Amino acid sequence: MAELTSSSPDVYPESERTHMRRLHERGSHERAAVHALLDASPLCHVGYVIDGQPFVTPTMQWRDGDRVYWHGSAASRMLRSADGHRVCLTATLMDGYVLARSAFNHSANYRSVMVFGEARRLEDDGAKQAALHAFTDGLFPGRWETLRPMTPQELKGTSVLWMEIEEATTKVRTGPPGDTEEATYPVWAGVVPLHTTLGRPVPVPMMPPGIELPEPIAALVASGRLR
Amino acid sequence: MAELTSSSPDVYPESERTHMRRLHERGSHERAAVHALLDASPLCHVGYVIDGQPFVTPTMQWRDGDRVYWHGSAASRMLRSADGHRVCLTATLMDGYVLARSAFNHSANYRSVMVFGEARRLEDDGAKQAALHAFTDGLFPGRWETLRPMTPQELKGTSVLWMEIEEATTKVRTGPPGDTEEATYPVWAGVVPLHTTLGRPVPVPMMPPGIELPEPIAALVASGRLR
């Protein structure tokens, strides 16, 4: 394993793996920044290696302290292959397209976080259920207790993986194109923002009468974002 | 390399790597579906393996036939490490949260594509410039010719990687939760859609007067989506 160095408990350690050679101004190893970005982006992409071939799988992640969790079918080859192996989990939010006067200075505004560690599978049924409870209520506050309870078969059919964050990097770009020295070149330059928002909830066709989307889920949806 | 089998030129071959064991109804190897999803999602996540550790990097991809391209700084460790090695490139569009009566049946509506191949770096300057031209105009029609031309230094500072799609899989989930047998359980169920749209363009502060965002870029932006 690469040697880790960290200057402070507020900063994730840095190794050859996460040392940033370029664009330092966009990057950070700060624990608070890493946590905030993970929390802001439930969708992530997890990288596994199976027989030397990388696999990048989209999934939902959630966090508890320095642990990141994800889940899936117990039959999933990815999840079975990941247990005990190195993983990289990356979450990215695209905030806009950056149009400059030159092709070279075109860019994107984005926030991304990349975390490294070793995947572990939760074996204890109680711990699994507690993790899924935290996942559900983390997205939809209070929902777990309102649901038809999980059956032993469903719990058995679900794998929960987690990793301790060993190293992590955030990268953020914001603002206009960085080509102010070319400000007189006669072409439009600026940012086209990208917005991701929640839409109006669509109830199932056969909903029994009188059942509404409960507060505070409805309030989150109305705000346009769950997190 | 895994043995490939394909029944038709319209379908990417399938190996152990891409054989779908579960949820067949959501998956496809159809060439047209793979291409449509790549074209719909410029943002992707590329998985590399460096010294046995997976790295998952967000970047923008573009396509020409059965080739997928991405780019970055010539100084990028990822891009240098990828050349000649196996990669997995995944693009995912989140369309909504699926709320069921049980935690187990909660899901997400999404469209994702995963492509496998071997990364290659474009070495020829003309080919590199042509690829970057296609990338720029693919997002912003006609923009390349309006820009301050690329300098030899900028071209030298940019790496363009590509892969021939050897295998590919799409996965799509749409519609309401699949738990109609529990329709009488007294909890709200349905879909909370997620929309990603372009916002109002923000010009740079010092834009010379009289310069507008050109058609047809303005028309695409007004439509809410570039692709």
Account of the 3D structure:
- The structure is a homodimer of 227-residue chains.
- The first copy, chain A, contains five helices and eleven strands.
- The first copy, chain A, is α+β, with helices and mostly antiparallel strands and 227 residues long.
- Chain A has a domain at 24-94 and 109-175: Electron Transport, Fmn-binding Protein, Chain A (Pnp Oxidase, Chain A, Roll), CATH 2.30.110.
- In chain A, strands 1, 2, 3, 4, 5, 6, 7, 8, 9 and 10 form a ten-stranded antiparallel β-sheet that branches.
- In chain A, a hairpin with a 7-residue loop joins β5 (86-99) and β6 (107-118).
- The model of chain A has no long low-confidence stretch (mean pLDDT 92).
- Chains A and B meet through β2, β3, β5, β6 and α3 of A and β2, β3, β5, β6 and α3 of B.
At a glance:
With 227 residues, the first copy, chain A, is an alpha+beta fold.
Note the quaternary state here. homodimer
What is the CA-atom radius of gyration of chain A, in angstroms? Answer: 21 Å
Give helix % range of chain A: 10-25%
Helices and strands of chain A: which structural class?
A: alpha+beta
Order of helices and strands of chain A: EHEEEHEEEHHEEEEH
In the CATH hierarchy, what is the architecture of the domain at 24-94 and 109-175 in chain A at level 2? Answer: Roll
Total number of beta strands of chain A:
11
> Which chains share the greatest interface?
A-B, 95 and 95 residues
The DSSP helix count of chain A reads: 5
Low-confidence stretches of chain A: none
Tell me the fraction of residues in β-strands of chain A, as a range.
Answer: 35-45%
The fold-level CATH name of the domain at 24-94 and 109-175 in chain A is Pnp Oxidase, Chain A
Query: What's the rounded overall pLDDT mean of chain A?
Result: 92
What is the CATH C level class of the domain at 24-94 and 109-175 in chain A, in words? Mainly Beta
General shape of chain A = globular
Taking the alpha carbons of the first and last residues of chain A, their distance comes to: 34 Å
- How would you name the CATH homologous superfamily of the domain at 24-94 and 109-175 in chain A? Electron Transport, Fmn-binding Protein, Chain A
Main sheet specs of chain A? 10 strands, antiparallel
